[in-house]
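Rotation project, supervised by the postdoc (A.L.). Task for the rotation student: set up a whole-complex structure prediction and record inputs and outputs verbatim in this book. Inputs entered:
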Amino acid sequence: MESVPLTWEEVARVYGRKIYNFAYRLTGNSDDAADLVQEVLLRVRKGLAAYQPGSFEGWLWRITRNAFLDEVRKRNRRPTAPLPDEVDRWDMASSPSADVEYSRISIGDDVQKALLELPYEFREAVVLCDIVGLSYEEIARAVAVPVGTVRSRIHRGRKLLRESLT
Amino acid sequence: MSHAGELISAYLDGELARHEIDQLQAHLATCGKCAAEMQEMQSVRSAVRSLPLLELPPGLIPEADAEVVPLRRNKGFLVGAAAAAVALVIAIAAIVTPSTPSVTLEELNSRYGARASLDPAFGPAKVVVPDLGDILE
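Outputs recorded:
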């Protein structure tokens, strides 16, 4: 049975770094990642009282993903545009900052760059699987798609990564 | 099975049922294309998983920083600082109520000194000076 963190402080301590890495790998931008961590923890703080025991990971990552997409909407001020394109435009807009990060973090430069080139749904699925470490079932709950879709997105994402990296 | 396709990634992630694993392995034994793709996917998966796990920027989560501090400090320093804090509490107690006979220095040391030596979190950053009335009752 999955254990459920009892306090906001515990959630912050246990998951803060994972949330930061999730956001950083999706955007390549440390400032955006930091903003997202704070927004997610704020939402967790508000939502913990009403949390019903179940899949805590699914609940937390659903909040994280929604917060991420809300941030994208805010930044682009185009709430009616398709979300994946919005995210990709945000990434393009933040590319100078991403370049700074690339120079600071030498390990995995090419992999990070290849990740940023993926369509959003594939990038999200790969990051949740390989960076955050969620199971397909947990990703499906977080993203609100069937497990089969998660499986397909991860595999297609990896195939595109392979093409970028070779 | 024509080609293994997404079963390959699911296999690498431990997401296949037993019968699917058997099916995939049987296919890989006869399909060079899928066997090669398996190796490539394994390589890509490893590359992503090898990305460094970045530290949180300092100050982003104060509670998380507070938890990290003791781990980075010298353990001997913590024990010494905690013992000093306990000694301070004891000294204050002795000064404020010098004639109170219901508790001895040994009892205080036993009660709080033991916690200081066993609980690494009982360091200077988290010391809460106990209510003297509680200690001396």
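Student's summary: The interface with chain A takes residues 5-6, 8-10, 13, 15, 40-41, 43-45, 47-57, 60-61, 63-64, 67 of chain B (CB under 8 Å).
Supervisor addendum: The longest helix of chain B spans residues 75-96.
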